[in-house]
Amino acid sequence: MVYVNGRFVPPEKAQIPVTDRAFLFADGVYEVIFGRAGRFAFWDLHMARLTRSAAELEIPLPLDSAGWLAVAKRLWSEGGDSGSIYLEVSRGAAPREHHFPDRIEPSTVAFIKPASAPESCLGPGVSAVLLEDQRWLRCDIKSVNLLPNVLAREEARRRGAREAILVRDGMLTEGAATNLFVVREGELWTHPANHLVLAGITRHVILEEARRLDLKIRLEPYAKADLAQADEIFVTGTTSHLLPIAEIRDEWRAKGPGPITAQLHDAYWRRLTTELEPAASAAASAG
Ligand code: PLP
Which residues are catalytic? Predict the structure, then answer.
């Protein structure tokens, strides 16, 4: 089932008008949340980011956190064990004008993308390519305007790599759909959460765990020119969790499994599997 503007319908019946501004202008915001057996990881953090993204674009949100949770649970009752739920809100449908239409109702869509439940995500590492960051200057908004990200991922795929790491003015910003972390001499670097990157929920949890582990954190962009000095590199995101980078084509190669990457992975994995909303006790009492 798919949720569209208050109704639960089979995917082939899910319809949005061609005048919807998400279709015409990518004028919408979205969230992606990891779920397992009808419970969702870091729910409140995702809700806070969705609220902020929508507010930045002046799109009113038709549902509050409890409303979204009810939609998510109903969709999941048909779904499998593990996967992600996608929530999307566009400004709505209206005759095509660039500026905001005067009277317009937002369009709301939610659907589940099932995935097999990974036992843990710490594999041998993946390949990445370095590409110029061609995105706009409001990467902090989780908007559906993802064309530069799509092109970067496609270029990575054509070169046999899993992720594209983006470079703006000589500094590494983030992955096409992940945040980037670099470990150098025991210090953990990641781009500050400003207008040039998305403030990832996974990034947030990793930073909390890094503080708990007493790691020295540098919220600074890492220079492409300093890649040779990087000891460990990994990327994070809701659907890829924590992925070690084994190589950046023509630029950098991991010397072996990274100990700090492994520590952070284990800490993150514990939280991912224990901090599910609603809590098991609440879910049980709600039937
Ligand atoms: N950066 C970008 C550009 C993304 O698209 C994403 C996720 O889609 C992330 C970072 C990771 O964010 P999160 O951990 O909230 O999934």
Answer: 142
